[in-house]
Amino acid sequence: MPTRPLQRADQQPLWTDPLACLPPLPGHGGERVNRQGTCAFATPGFNPPVGLAAVTTPRRFLELARSRLNRTASAAAAGSTASPYRATAIPGKGIGLIATRPIRAGERVMAEPVTVLVDGQAWGQEGWEGLLAAAVEGLGEKMAGEVRGLAMPDGWTGGVEEGVVRGNAFKISGKTGGEMGWHGVFLGVSRLNHACAPNMGYHFDRDSMEMRVYAAQDVWPGEELTISYVDLIQDSHTRQESLSATWGFTCTCQRCTRESHVLAESDSRVQQILDLWREVDDYGGGKGTPEKAELLVTLYELEGLQARIHEAYYRAALEWNGDGDQTRAVRYARLGLDRGLLMKGEDKPFVQSLREMVKDPKDHWSWRFRVDGKEKL
Fold first, then answer.
1. 65, 154, 204, 364: which could form a disulfide with 357 (CB 3.0–4.6 Å)?
2. 147-151: long-range contacts (C-beta < 8 A, 24 or more apart)?
3. How confident is the model at residue 374 (pLDDT cuts 50, 70, 90)?
């Protein structure tokens, strides 16, 4: 452990001593640091003035502190412009975020560092709830109150801090934390309610430990900002079952509350999306065509899936390149990059694949793969 505060010259310490610890788990000797197991930490230096509450081993917390030592605030988080939204009570939903000015598609709406972090290996360990409560308490009265004020799953009867984490945490993977990753709570992002055709998309940036939220479409003043809590490429009944089982509520968004015949048409489109996926994703088969990929783009648009439309653009780029049409391939590759970078981040394999296609379509693995495959038959 550090013998002096681990901090930048002008900031508060990044390392603090554990507030409480559990004994090491049997068979996890490699995790022992000073004979300690999973511990609770609270430090203001990660995200001043909010701070970070963490449940992890001392070794992993030290790795986090060291990785943060020479890092300055990202350009995304350093902006001083006023937020384009306000928090307010939404009937039937609790607190939500409402746009206060026009927000253009592609605009960054949030770049928020993590506030509560639970090691994936600590999740569910006997006694972890007490560590979580201690870590949140260590943030101080004001910030601990804000964390505890976040929504919990309907009907939750356990501890407040655990309920907040179960109801608001994102599964994230940092550059430390091992194969199990982390569960992270972001105060502002947690105020975003669910919709099955959300107007916001997001991705987690591992370097800055920030959740970045972008507008997937134009949003007007007075509209609620929303993200998705479940897989949206499912029929309405399956989506409702998933939301009810995990979060305890029934979705009342526009996509879910249409007249029965319109809802049936939506479910039919979802099934067609799934069918087209299977065909265009079968690179060794002969059913995928550029026209089917174009239809996939249209279906995403009809379902209001702007936060995931990069998936359709990517498939259209592959199909046109597989057909030997450089211009159309690069067009969809550019569209896929434009949305994919915002909604998924720059470290995803499909982003690198699209960049390679833009650079040289003929050098990409997909060049004429549909045409050449048919010629070999």
1. 364
2. 147/53, 147/115, 147/116, 147/185, 147/187, 150/185, 150/187, 150/190, 150/191, 151/94, 151/95, 151/190
3. low
Q: What is the pLDDT of residues 331-368, one digit of tens each?
A: 999 999 999 999 999 999 999 999 999 999 999 999 99
Residue 67, judged by CB atoms within 10 A of its CB (0-12, 13-18, 19+), counts as middle
**Mean pLDDT over the full length of the chain:** 88
How many C-beta atoms surround the C-beta of residue 183 within 10 A? 21
Task: For residue 173, report the phi and psi dihedrals to the nearest 5 degrees.
Answer: -125, 115
Q: In one letter, which amino acid is 16?
A: T
Residue with tokens 């249409």: 258
What is the rounded distance in angstroms from the CA atom of residue 270 to the CA atom of residue 263?
11
Q: Residue ranges per domain, the chain?
A: 20-226, 260-375
Residues 6+ away with beta carbon under 8 Å from 342: 106, 108, 201, 203, 212, 214
- In this structure, are residues 114 and 50 in contact, taking their beta carbons and an 8 Å threshold? no
Q: Say if residue 207's pLDDT is above 50.
A: yes
pLDDT of the residue at 11 = 54
Query: What confidence tens digit (pLDDT) does each residue in 179-193 have?
Result: 568 999 999 999 999
Topology (CATH level 3) of domain 20-226? Beta-clip-like (2.170.270)
Helix (H), strand (E) at residue 143 = helix 141-148
For residues 321 and 32, which has the higher predicted lDDT (pLDDT)?
A: 321
Structure-block tokens of residue 166: 């179960």
Burial class (CB in 10 A: 0-12, 13-18, 19+), 93: middle
Q: Which of 19, 26, 25, 23 is nearest to 36 (CA)?
A: 23
| Residue from 375, 374, 376 nearest 286 by CA | 374
